[in-house]
Amino acid sequence: QLHSDQDKGDGSLKYILSGDGAGDLFIINENTGDIQATKRLDREEKPVYILRAQAINRRTGRPVEPESEFIIKIHDINDNEPMFTKDVYNASIPEMSDVGTFVVQVTATDADDPTYGNSAKVVYSILQGQPYFSVESETGIIKTALLNMDRENREQYQVVIQAKDMGGQMGGLSGTTTVNITLTDVNDNPPRFPQSTYQFRAPESTPLDSPVGRIKANDADVGENAEIEYSITEGDGYDMFGITTDKDTQEGIITVKKALDFESKNLYILKVEATNTHVDPRFLYLGPFKDSATVRIQVEDVDEPPMFSRPAYIMEVKEDVPLNSIIGTVSAQDPDAAKNPVKYSVDRHTDMDRVFNINSGNGSIFTSKPLDRETLLWHNITVIAAEINNPKQSSRVPVFIKVLDVNDNAPEFAMFYETFVCENAKAEQLIQTLSAVDKDDSYNGHQFSFSLAPEAASSSNFTLQDNRDNTAGIFTRKTRYNRHETSTYFLPVVVSDNDYPIQSSTETVTIRVCACDHRGKMLSCNAEALIHPTGLSTGALIAILLCIIILLVTVVLFAALRRQRKKEPLIISKEDIRDNIVSYNDEGGGEEDTQAFDIGTLRNPEAIDDNKLRRDIVPETLFMPRRTATARDNTDVRDFINQRLKENDTDPTAPPYDSLATYAYEGNGSVAESLSSLESVTTDGDQDYDYLSDWGPRFKKLADMYGSMDSDKDS
């Protein structure tokens, strides 16, 4: 209550209020000065209000005292319960954690005044989650309370925490929150095989790296703690099989490393071990983190193809061996217990020329055609071995045959030698050096010897000197040569090798006698030009050249005029009306005409003359006629012709087009349509030619001709 000393109680003063909440939250009685609150006050919304009050004269409105300020403080009561910062907390800890391991800290706040009483003093307690977890009452820290909690037994826990004010005393307000705690996995469980022995079967034809079977060891852990690595530790199939881990399923896949053979061994026993790849040292006391099992693999017998004694054969044969000479033998056997007999053959796709053949019984390879090392040094063929009882069971082996050289080729000149000798040459002058080549092979190098042929050794005008280095020189034997007497010499030279048997050939060197200057440079080798030294003068040569040029110009002009005339139109005058007609008067006799063609010729292409060529075009290249199979007598003619049509369409030697002559010119300015009867659909008897008289004098003759024909028919 406000009261002024100037208030005499006569109602002359009036009290007014201003400030925080004046007129809304707080009101004042203007006559008595009583201040009242209009609604419930909440300290948590506003703890302090500052108001100003003043007494004024009711009549004049003037203040009778200075304005007074006063402060209203709201005293706190415990009207707010503690509130957690989260409605739900999520936390995780590793399984098998020690007691007292920190899990998570929860926090609750109280809106009441912490400085006034215990309204804001909060303590924590656990309502749900014991005996696994505990909470510190003052800090809200949650810890483990039970030893060796195992994720494999229970993974999820739900804990309810309470926060209560008033220090936890009776009458205090409280709030709760939920904490979801998950146990994370640790590698505390070793892998274990569900059974101690596994049985698998594998055909002996199983390809390498193919799976035989799968085994799996179980691990209660998850993630990387459950990753397993498999290995074969011992057993008689240690080197025959391998094992890998399927990363998706954690299974061990047993595969074949080496080829299986039922006849050699039909049972393998392996010991397979499964080990964790990520071992936690803290739990080694629980035992070894690995397990083992026995795997028995039974090999099944299958019908196998014959097997050669070698993966490949290399043979050698001299090129001069007689036909049917044996050059080597291949051997193959049936690996099955039945030991079926085997027959041999040569794959003709690798021996198209049938140079070699093979004995189907014993596998001996022999020649069937002559060999030539200079043509083909290596022959690579394939031999097939198949079971006689089951030819589908076959195998192949490559055979490499090297043709050895024999001295069967005579040496010959390295090139064609044509040289010259000067008329003024001196004796013993070198005019040409010779060299030779040999197609045969020589292990120690070729050694050639050169000599003149016996018929030329004594009477020749030249000598030959062997240089003993596979070359030879031709020298002049006399001084001066006369090209008017002999213009060309042919010198026979014998070239021999030193291999066994000795091979030799006679080669010819052409030597022309030429006129040379004093330095030996050739001037002319034409003897006839020197026999008639008096030639034409320069003026005569120029005149002849001019005549030739004029003649050529005349020929070119004449050809151009003829070409120009050919380009003129076919019909120059409108009066010149022509129709080019090609008449084909040969018509078939219909179905009853059996003499028109010989059906036997159609069915037997052998009867056709192979040398007949097309007459309407000039063939660019002559191909050998293609032979086709003779048709059966009961072949339908239509099917036969369709077959021949298809063969000629796909035949690359058949002409790609037909000759077509088109006659479509009927003259300039014709007022009538085509007069050709080739496209008429009616007969002459159906035509009325009276209209020809209306076309004018140019068609008068036609009108008379056809008009008279109509009158003759009427008569």
UniProtKB/TrEMBL annotation:
<feature type="domain" description="Cadherin">
    <location>
        <begin position="85"/>
        <end position="193"/>
    </location>
</feature>
<comment type="function">
    <text>Cadherins are calcium-dependent cell adhesion proteins. They preferentially interact with themselves in a homophilic manner in connecting cells; cadherins may thus contribute to the sorting of heterogeneous cell types.</text>
</comment>
<keyword id="KW-1133">Transmembrane helix</keyword>
<feature type="transmembrane region" description="Helical">
    <location>
        <begin position="540"/>
        <end position="561"/>
    </location>
</feature>
<dbReference type="InterPro" id="IPR000233">
    <property type="entry name" value="Cadherin_Y-type_LIR"/>
</dbReference>
<feature type="domain" description="Cadherin">
    <location>
        <begin position="309"/>
        <end position="413"/>
    </location>
</feature>
<keyword id="KW-0165">Cleavage on pair of basic residues</keyword>
<dbReference type="InterPro" id="IPR039808">
    <property type="entry name" value="Cadherin"/>
</dbReference>
<protein>
    <recommendedName>
        <fullName>Cadherin-6</fullName>
    </recommendedName>
</protein>
<dbReference type="GO" id="GO:0007043">
    <property type="term" value="P:cell-cell junction assembly"/>
</dbReference>
<dbReference type="InterPro" id="IPR020894">
    <property type="entry name" value="Cadherin_CS"/>
</dbReference>
<dbReference type="InterPro" id="IPR015919">
    <property type="entry name" value="Cadherin-like_sf"/>
</dbReference>
<feature type="domain" description="Cadherin">
    <location>
        <begin position="194"/>
        <end position="308"/>
    </location>
</feature>
<feature type="domain" description="Cadherin">
    <location>
        <begin position="4"/>
        <end position="84"/>
    </location>
</feature>
<dbReference type="GO" id="GO:0005509">
    <property type="term" value="F:calcium ion binding"/>
</dbReference>
<dbReference type="GO" id="GO:0016342">
    <property type="term" value="C:catenin complex"/>
</dbReference>
<dbReference type="GO" id="GO:0044331">
    <property type="term" value="P:cell-cell adhesion mediated by cadherin"/>
</dbReference>
<dbReference type="GO" id="GO:0005912">
    <property type="term" value="C:adherens junction"/>
</dbReference>
<dbReference type="InterPro" id="IPR027397">
    <property type="entry name" value="Catenin-bd_sf"/>
</dbReference>
<keyword id="KW-0812">Transmembrane</keyword>
<feature type="domain" description="Cadherin">
    <location>
        <begin position="413"/>
        <end position="523"/>
    </location>
</feature>
<keyword id="KW-0130">Cell adhesion</keyword>
<keyword id="KW-0479">Metal-binding</keyword>
<keyword id="KW-0325">Glycoprotein</keyword>
<dbReference type="Pfam" id="PF00028">
    <property type="entry name" value="Cadherin"/>
</dbReference>
<dbReference type="GO" id="GO:0000902">
    <property type="term" value="P:cell morphogenesis"/>
</dbReference>
<keyword id="KW-0732">Signal</keyword>
<keyword id="KW-0677">Repeat</keyword>
<dbReference type="GO" id="GO:0007156">
    <property type="term" value="P:homophilic cell adhesion via plasma membrane adhesion molecules"/>
</dbReference>
<keyword id="KW-0106">Calcium</keyword>
<dbReference type="GO" id="GO:0008013">
    <property type="term" value="F:beta-catenin binding"/>
</dbReference>
<dbReference type="GO" id="GO:0016477">
    <property type="term" value="P:cell migration"/>
</dbReference>
<dbReference type="Pfam" id="PF01049">
    <property type="entry name" value="CADH_Y-type_LIR"/>
</dbReference>
<dbReference type="InterPro" id="IPR002126">
    <property type="entry name" value="Cadherin-like_dom"/>
</dbReference>
<keyword id="KW-1003">Cell membrane</keyword>
<dbReference type="GO" id="GO:0045296">
    <property type="term" value="F:cadherin binding"/>
</dbReference>
<dbReference type="GO" id="GO:0016339">
    <property type="term" value="P:calcium-dependent cell-cell adhesion via plasma membrane cell adhesion molecules"/>
</dbReference>
<keyword id="KW-0472">Membrane</keyword>
<dbReference type="GO" id="GO:0099560">
    <property type="term" value="P:synaptic membrane adhesion"/>
</dbReference>
<dbReference type="GO" id="GO:0034332">
    <property type="term" value="P:adherens junction organization"/>
</dbReference>
